[in-house]
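Hey,
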Amino acid sequence: MAILTGGYDGGMDIWSRAKEAGCHLAPHGCQELQCHYVAAADPDGGRLEIYPPRLDPERDKIFPLPFLLDENGMASIPDLPGIGLTPDREALEDHAVYTSHP
């Protein structure tokens, strides 16, 4: 949601409107980026779709520490600086897109 709505502010706006209407949201895709505003928007326990490694093995190369679910299906949000995860920059090189010349 954050990626498609102009960032976290847009995502929080959608989340707020959904809660006002009595709806639940479960953003999916890029869970490493979505999880923080899910936690901020719904501290009582929001929903987040998490892709298992077998669906997207590239994701686990880029983010080598995947989310782990507990026995209740809950994920803990990383508490490190930034997005809470450190991407493997070597793994990202295969996906680099250069938009200008140095």
